[in-house]
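ok so i was messing around last nite and threw this chain in just to see what happens. nothing serious, just curious
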Amino acid sequence: MLVVRDVAEEAEAQVLAQGDDVHEPAAEEVVTEHVLDTCSALARRVEGLENDKVAQQLEIVKLNARLRRLKKVRTSQRVESLDAMENVFNQGRIIVDMDQDEWIELVVD
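result:
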């Protein structure tokens, strides 16, 4: 049995198939470019977040140091005030200083 082939139809099919191949690399280039743009944007965003993280860590360290200094000053002031109140001479001097202040008025009950 002999089969008659239509050469024209096969040629058109090959041309259409080749035309599809031409569009595929262009589409792949667009997709590749889009992926690269997205990747670079995400890399910049990650870099920014890392910089923010470092800045926040530095601020936390500075605030902790400041808190320690304030606690130390507060503790030393409390010790000094206790020492001052325990000394009877200082109590008398503190009362005299309060008497000299115009805005403090002592009331005897």
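not much to say yet. Residues 32 and 38 are 10 Å apart (CA to CA).
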